[in-house]
Amino acid sequence: MIAELSAAMTAIKETAGLVKVIHNAKTDTEVKAATIELQNKLITLQAECFNLGDAIRHRDEEAAHFKAKIAKFEDFKSDSKGYVLHRTEGETLVYSKQVVVDDLEMMVHACPHCYQQKKISMLQPGIEKSVKGGYWVYFCPCCNSQFKMDKTPAANATQVRTQRFTSGGRIW
């Protein structure tokens, strides 16, 4: 943009010089030659002004683009407030946040892949595979990643029985 502004200023200076030449011209031929040169310089000045306008519009578009990026970042920063990295019983890392819904306090989980992409996508209980290896399976509706979460009640009961047998106790 500085180059366009400099070119426009140079064209203005040259145009002003030509006006002085026309004013000081003594013959009709000198006036006509200077007038033709003045018209050429005015056309150049007009072209430089168009270039300057294009440069200003380009800068405005860039500024709008960066403002939109900043707003998106600020929105994510606000939306992600309170989320912390959490390791589930299934050894999966997810982002979690304690929330209150209908007077009930609960933990919501967000997909770590989407979180890194600056999106909050809440994990949902699995539909096709709800259990895997004794753990509840949740999935991300955005990227379809699957996550082993908490142990199922059956897995918890098996673990308790296993602990009782290995500690030497008898179960009747």
Report on the architecture of this protein.
This protein starts with a helix and ends in a 6-residue tail after the last helix. Residues 159-166 have low confidence and may be disordered. The protein has 4 helices and 7 strands; from the N terminus they run ααβββαββββα. Strands 4, 5, 6 and 7 form a 4-stranded antiparallel sheet that branches. It has helices spanning 2-24, 28-79, 112-116, 153-166; strands at 84-87, 93-101, 104-110, 124-125, 131-132, 135-139, 146-151. Strand 2 (93-101) and strand 3 form a beta hairpin. With 172 residues, it is of the alpha+beta class.
Q: How much helical structure, as a percent, in the residues?
A: 40-55%
What summary fits the major beta sheet? Answer: 4 strands, antiparallel
**Chain-averaged pLDDT:** 83
**How far do the termini sit from each other?**
87 Å
In brief:
The chain contains 4 helices and 7 strands, in the order H-H-E-E-E-H-E-E-E-E-H.
Task: Write the SSE topology.
Elements: H1 2-24, H2 28-79, E1 84-87, E2 93-101, E3 104-110, H3 112-116, E4 124-125, E5 131-132, E6 135-139, E7 146-151, H4 153-166
Antiparallel strand pairs: 1-2, 2-3, 4-6, 5-6, 6-7
Helix pairs in contact: 1-2
